[in-house]
């Protein structure tokens, strides 16, 4: 077996794990790893901020399903990565962040840029570890990939002291391979009980969370729903798990990112099968309203998720794909036990609520009303377009109005909600899938958080469209502040986003009339491809526009006027 620089062994591991792109910024304490990368097949993308690097690796991971990798040097490089690690942990995204570190002998002496990044990162990672010996290098990285992928996926941090990086180890890549990842399946008895509960229900509902997308189980979900004739709702993280133009699509329930008719469907359901969903507070609202009158079956790959928010009537530990596959298989022929008229009546009821309670999006007002922007986005872009969006009023509007048809086409930082996520994540997506149309939907304030990352997309000639929903001030914060009578953070101004984009060498256009939105989207799409650059369409919207928010599911007045259905057989 050959003795080689241990960082060369690390790079060999990265290549064999399917990593073709890494994001980072070189620095003195990480140079041995960068030296090894120079002779590898891996593309390094130099970002402008380590947080931006983590978000780019995050976007790359979300769209590929593989483990994203971000690299930084010691000290503030690692602390800058914490937000990205937290985002990946909250949304179950497999990612590895690698940091350089001062020499081992200097760690207790407060050396330059020496910080205990392992202890800092532990609360926001699945595993945070410092390499102690060069001989451990390939095996620590192998374990990092296994942990990142296993169970509920998530991030890992590996800290590399400079003296350890300079060491050597015995390693033969021909004798090594990725470690196996367990995919736990359900017990047959549990599937049988779940099927019994669903067959006995008059108004069953499947709730598909982000775990369905992470498990690549969209086809199994569709087959199970169709065989059992059960409507399907998605969570925000689950958008794309089920096509929104399918006859069994039942909308989205919640207190912010929801459809009104989806809330109405949920409130009429009697049995809910939640797969890969964690019952986040923005989805459930007040639990007494959410749970009232319903039986819950909760399926999750992570055992400790079961009962974390509330105790389900039936908990099942399983990877989403084998569970849904087994459910569909068991349902073959079994669905006849359910009276056809009952299922038909429920599916028709869902269709009635869908057609009766849509949110209006055809406004012609000036200033532009935000729903009109999303109407134009839905009409202009195709089913295969990948959308990236972050947090704020524009995320709420996006969840309420944007249509999604395929998995891994709607990427959103759902739980952590870091402002500035979108442009970096879109960069990662475009590098991973250069053939796809990529659109980042941003807010004016979020864009300014990491706007320097536009320079990365420009440098590497990455064509994607940025659609900015600009209400010129902190709309969501102002909306939340109203009960407290505070307006201290409202007025921002001072940034001309068109000129800012042009300063990066990128085209941009401002839109102030609804009739001009489609032309601007067409121009931006064509310009992005022609110039091989990110292009901005800044849409000036109504300053006072709010989004529906509240403590519980939004049962609106239209729901009360729709005739009730007699569910007795």
UniProtKB/TrEMBL annotation:
EC number assigned by the record: 4.1.1.47
Entries under InterPro entries matching the protein: DHS-like_NAD/FAD-binding_dom, THDP-binding, Thiamin_PyroP_enz_cen_dom, Thiamin_PyroP_enz_TPP-bd_dom, TPP_enz, TPP_enzyme_TPP-bd
Residue span(s) of domain Thiamine pyrophosphate enzyme TPP-binding: 391-539
Listed SUPFAM superfamilies: DHS-like NAD/FAD-binding domain (SSF52467), Thiamin diphosphate-binding fold (THDP-binding) (SSF52518)
UniProt KW keywords: Lyase, Thiamine pyrophosphate
Domain named Thiamine pyrophosphate enzyme central: residues: 191-327
UniProt cross-references to Pfam families, sorted A to Z: TPP_enzyme_C (PF02775), TPP_enzyme_M (PF00205), TPP_enzyme_N (PF02776)
Catalytic EC class: lyase
Gene Ontology MF term list: tartronate-semialdehyde synthase activity
Domain (Thiamine pyrophosphate enzyme N-terminal TPP-binding): residue spans on this chain: 8-119
Family designation: Belongs to the TPP enzyme family.
Entry-linked PANTHER family: GLYOXYLATE CARBOLIGASE (PTHR18968:SF14), THIAMINE PYROPHOSPHATE ENZYMES (PTHR18968)
Name the UniProt record assigns to this protein: Glyoxylate carboligase
Species annotation: Nonomuraea mangrovi
Lineage of the species this protein comes from: Bacteria, Bacillati, Actinomycetota, Actinomycetes, Streptosporangiales
Gene this protein is translated from: gcl
